């Protein structure tokens, strides 16, 4: 499998080199150059669509923005093509940040509407701002492309476009296989789990928008230089749809899919011209047919077929993994990780889910939080981990205030959690899920990711080794390459624990980890939690399973109707009349008689 991508790049380079030698005439070369420009837009848009799962229908707006910026810089200020591209990239990148902002609140179809509105605004500004854009007449006399005063011939300009597309495809492929690509995929699959691992979803989406905008902006400048003339009617909504289709048709998320999609959708209209009146109908019908037969796009479907007959990737060797002690061990002397919740109150409208709850998880202990259904246990976990904000009271981890902090900041302070309803990144492999958990410990930046520097490779290697070690720790080594959503439920719970541990937490919150497990799986879970505590990590265990609590907990706190009714050693809790009454709804004597 590994050799496929380098082979793809080799074939891509050969095609790009051979085309100008084979081009029958200037028109054929120009059409291919148009494909290269569209390819650049599609490759950038793929980061947004294929990795973060967002839909933009405003790419024509960014394309226009880049075109006008490049054209104005070249005609008014005499910039050459490189300087114009840089100017267009900066401006469209800034608009990418602006476009990413709404994703804090809106997603899916609402976000698509926002991007459509952006495209309409750009079109109208291009029409109305006549002094700068030439209004409906547009901008003409855009100079021939030149670099540092040297004019580029048709073939030289072709070479610039070809190299640009090749380099951007390579850079974006590098981004995809780095921690940034992995994290973007994770955010698209579970924003909640991402936040719990310390990932900032808004930052990831902003990065994706910036990449998609910068490439569209540069492509726009290239287009202005290629055409020598631009006007608002060149950049229409249907172009935005076409750019999105290029990604989907080629195969969203794949390295070369968008390039293939751009090729098909550049040449298809040319080919269909012979059908004259039927051209548009044939275009639509063909697209429908292709998407029906290849729902994952050309490359996505080929990949699926290829995956069926190729031998499965070998499971990583357990010996490759880092010992879990190395990945997780804390010094108990200096790393106490004490959680103190003080008089927490959380209300949902008129309902007090937590009333004045105080609780202390001592460093290194296993503290169980129990209570009947609806007692407020999950609300407590969600409040401690920053998913809810308390109405009153405060909590701190080793003296560091948690109240008022966002969930991702709390995760970065060393508090990891699992979820009552498992929140895995279903499309990622089991190994990748754990590697996403490790993400906050990686320090290489964007430039290292884009260039795949030795530092990036070294850190990724360490991350992979730690993840393999953690999979061994929870007994999931043989499933490393499986998609997480295919794991049986009991194993999904274990994977969530491994992923939470990957961030090297000081306190682990386990929200009903035994729910739905078999007796054997509960025994395994008991051993795992015991080992975790043995490594110096404090554990707050929310559970209904009495045997597990009695076997594991150093202290048990009982919640009922949002209030702490008891907190003591397990044996004392078992005989506490208030606890018996909370569970059985009757005083202890009568509960015994009933039993
Ligand atoms: N987001 C919310 N909005 C409104 N009410 C909520 C919300 N989350 C929890 N509640 C309510 O708060 C109370 C405590 O719920 P919570 O889920 O914390 O209990 P629990 O002890 O975890 O229960 P279970 O063991 O069934 O998971 C319940 O009455 C619940 O309906």
What does this structure look like?
It is a single chain. The protein is of the alpha/beta class and 595 residues long. The chain has 2 domains: 4-237, no CATH class; 327-430 and 487-594, P-loop containing nucleotide triphosphate hydrolases (Rossmann fold, 3-Layer(aba) Sandwich). Helices cover 58% and strands 11% of the residues. The chain has helices at residues 4-22, 26-51, 59-77, 81-100, 108-128, 130-133, 154-176, 179-189, 191-196, 201-227, 237-250, 257-272, 279-293, 297-309, 324-328, 377-384, 407-412, 430-438, 446-451, 454-473, 489-502, 519-534, 546-552, 570-574, 577-584, 588-594; strands spanning 146-147, 150-151, 339-348, 351-361, 366-370, 392-397, 400-401, 415-417, 507-511, 538-542, 555-560, 563-568. It has a 6-stranded mixed β-sheet, with helices on both faces. α2 (26-51) runs antiparallel to α10, α8 packs across α10 (201-227) and α18 (430-438) packs parallel to α21. The radius of gyration is 29 Å and the shape is elongated. Residues 348, 351, 353, 371, 373-379, 420 line the site of adenosine-5'-triphosphate. Adenosine-5'-triphosphate is lined by residues 348, 351, 353, 371, 373-379, 420.
């Amino acid at each position: 499998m590994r050799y496929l991508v380098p082979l793809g790049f080799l074939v891509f380079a050969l095609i790009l080199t051979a085309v100008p030698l084979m081009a029958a005439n200037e028109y054929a070369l120009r059409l291919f150059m148009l494909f290269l420009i569209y390819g650049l837009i599609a490759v950038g848009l793929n980061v947004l669509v294929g990795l973060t799962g967002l839909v933009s229908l405003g790419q024509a707006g960014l394309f226009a923005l880049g075109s006008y910026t490049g054209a104005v810089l070249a005609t008014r200020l005499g910039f050459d093509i490189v300087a114009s591209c840089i100017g267009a990239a900066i401006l469209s990148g800034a608009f990418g940040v602006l476009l990413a902002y709404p994703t804090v609140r809106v997603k899916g179809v609402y976000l698509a509407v926002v991007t459509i509105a952006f495209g309409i605004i750009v079109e109208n500004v291009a029409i109305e701002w006549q002094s700068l854009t030439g209004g409906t007449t547009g901008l003409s006399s855009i100079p021939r492309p030149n670099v540092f005063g040297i004019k580029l011939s048709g073939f030289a300009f072709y070479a610039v476009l070809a190299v640009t597309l090749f380099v951007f495809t390579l850079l974006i492929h590098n981004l995809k296989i780095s921690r940034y690509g992995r994290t973007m995929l994770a955010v698209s699959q579970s924003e909640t789990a991402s936040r719990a691992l310390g990932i900032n979803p808004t930052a990831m989406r902003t990065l994706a928008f910036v990449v998609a905008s910068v490439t569209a902006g540069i492509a726009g400048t290239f287009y202005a230089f290629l055409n020598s003339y631009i006007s608002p009617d060149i950049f229409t909504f249907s172009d935005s749809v076409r750019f999105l289709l290029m990604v989907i048709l080629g195969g969203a998320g794949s390295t070369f899919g968008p390039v293939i999609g751009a090729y098909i959708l550049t040449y298809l209209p040319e080919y269909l011209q012979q059908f004259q009146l039927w051209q548009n109908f044939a275009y639509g019908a063909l697209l429908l047919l292709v998407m029906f037969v290849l729902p994952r796009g050309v490359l996505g479907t080929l990949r699926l077929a290829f995956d069926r007959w190729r031998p499965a990737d070998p499971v990583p060797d357990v010996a490759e993994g880092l010992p879990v002690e190395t990945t997780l061990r804390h010094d108990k002397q200096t790393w106490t990780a004490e959680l103190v919740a003080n008089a927490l109150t959380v209300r949902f409208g008129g309902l007090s889910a937590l009333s004045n709850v105080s609780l202390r998880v001592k460093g290194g202990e296993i503290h169980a939080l129990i209570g009947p259904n609806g007692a407020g246990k999950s609300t407590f976990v969600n409040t401690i981990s920053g998913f809810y904000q308390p109405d009153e009271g405060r909590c701190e981890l080793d003296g560091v205030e948690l109240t008022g902090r966002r969930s991702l900041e709390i995760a970065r302070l060393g508090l990891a959690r699992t979820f009552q309803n498992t929140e895995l990144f279903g499309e990622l492999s089991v190994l990748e899920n754990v590697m996403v958990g490790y993400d906050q410990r990686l320090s290489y930046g964007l430039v290292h990711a884009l260039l795949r520097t030795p530092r990036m490779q070294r850190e990724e290697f360490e991350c992979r080794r730690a993840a393999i070690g953690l999979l061994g720790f929870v007994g999931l080594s043989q499933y490393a390459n499986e998609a997480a959503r295919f794991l049986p439920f009991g194993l999904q719970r274990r994977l969530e624990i491994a992923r939470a541990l990957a961030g090297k937490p000081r306190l682990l919150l386990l929200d009903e980890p035994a729910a739905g497990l078999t007796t054997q799986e509960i025994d395994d879970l008991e051993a795992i939690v015991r080992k975790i505590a043995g490594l110096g990590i404090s554990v707050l265990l929310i559970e209904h399973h009495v045997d597990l609590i009695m076997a594991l907990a150093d202290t048990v706190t009982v919640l009922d109707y949002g209030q702490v009714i008891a907190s003591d050693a397990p044996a004392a809790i078992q005989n506490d009349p208030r606890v018996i009454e909370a569970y059985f709804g009757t005083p202890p004597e009568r509960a015994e008689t009933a039993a």
